[in-house]
Structures are given as C-alpha cells and as structure tokens.
Amino acid sequence: MRKERRNHSGADKVKILRRHLVDRVAVSDLCDEYGIHPTVFYRWQKVFFEKGASAFEKSSKPANSRLEDKVKKLEAKLAHKDGVIAQIMEDHVKLKKSLGED
C-alpha cells in the first residue's frame, strides 16, 4: 500500500528548514513530525542554499516590466502576422480578378 504524496508549499518548507537551522530541532524529529523522509528534507535544504543567494540579488527589471516586455513582443508578432495575412488576401483577390472570378 502506497502512502499518499503530500505537497508542501514553499512557505512550509522554509518553516521546517528554519526550525532545524535556527531552533536546532533535530532532523529526525522534524521528519517524524511532518511525515517526510530525511532525504526529502536534505533535498529541500540543498535547494534552499543553492537558490538562497537570489533573494539578495536585485533584479534589473521588476516582474511587471518583464511582463509588459513580453506583451509588447507578442503584440508585435501578432501585427506582423496580420500584415502577412493582409498581403496574402490582397494577392488572392488580384489572382481571382485576373482569372475572371468574382
């Protein structure tokens, strides 16, 4: 019989890691309390330390600015596609007229 997989939020993971690092609660006690395997705990800790530096780095652009840039690029792409479709339709109409079809 398999155990049901739990999904811990990022905040929960940080809370569990903080209890170990700051409050000095033993890993085995935390794993028993939260029903996680020690390898899962250590994997969270590894990711936490590897990506922790990004919390102190200043982003060159805020998230909204990046989204606005993406929207502008997509709008430009859409405008280009509209231009191509218009050109194809114009060529189609000319061809139909030259063939005598109305």
Describe what this molecule looks like in 3D:
With 102 residues, this protein is mostly helical. 69% of the residues lie in helices and 0% in strands. It has 4 helices and no strands. The chain folds into 2 domains: 1-57; 60-102.
Comma- or semicolon-separated keywords:
2 domains; 4 helices; 102 residues
List the helices and strands and how they pair.
Layout: H1 10-21, H2 27-34, H3 38-51, H4 63-98
Number of helices: 4
Return the structural class: mainly alpha
Largest sheet: none
Structural domains: how many = 2
| H/E topology pattern | HHHH
Uncertain runs are none
Concise account of the structure shown:
The chain is an all-alpha fold. It has 4 helices and no strands.
